[in-house]
Amino acid sequence: MPELPETETIARDLHAMIVGTAVRDVTVHRPDVLRETSAEALPAALRGAHITRVWRRAKLVVLDLETPAPISWYVAVQPRFTGGLVVDDGSLPAEELAYVCVTLHLADDRRVHYRDVRRLGTVALMSPARFQAYSAGLGPEPLDPALDIATFSGLLRASRQSIKVTLMDQRRLAGVGNIYANEALWRAGIDPSREARTLQEPETTRLLQELREVLTASIAARGTSFRDYRDARGERGSFVEQLAAYGRGGEPCARCGRRLVVTHAVDGRSTVFCPGCQF
Prior knowledge:
alpha+beta, Helicase, Ruva Protein, domain 3, 5-stranded mixed sheet, 4-stranded antiparallel sheet
């Protein structure tokens, strides 16, 4: 479930909390979440490394590390549906440790846990060259000022898929998932099932504006928590209180009063829209 606002929140928290700290050791509790490394190689690569930056790319939380060698590594964490990163100073309740998959033991005796109830997320170890190649396969960031309306319009015109699917296609646009695609389309008054290439310039302009506004508002609220999502301090996000479409199927539309419809016909996932004011 963590999308751009949730991973941005986690990355900002971690950057403020752990940058400059060294990794003393790594424990791999659940090796099935590892990608491009192993339970033996990950600790060997990261022992003694200093965390120099934590940031977000698409739906990834990325840790930049420098080893004494010197060798640079990227640890790219993709939480997917139920994963998350939390800093533990020793006070984390025992029940919160039940789903820990990987632990970074820091030199100051704190720990950074990757937890994942369903273990659908991943923890990858990448060289700078490998990460750059991976990142190059992703689309532009929706909050990047370099993404102007002409570029955004070009992304949509090139797609024969529905506008909702296009917004969620990480090769076209990075970081948007089901929650915020639903919300942005409701705010913009656009039917999620419309082909992306059919949007006219005023609609495209409005959609980009609404998408940016909903992502920014959710970051300010520290993300959306339904069940599993927690920030790096173990706290819930509050944007769920501002949702107008997602999770509100069957309720009156806040704009026109018609009952919101839930369908799985658009992309196999829960799509909530208003048949009265989304065209």
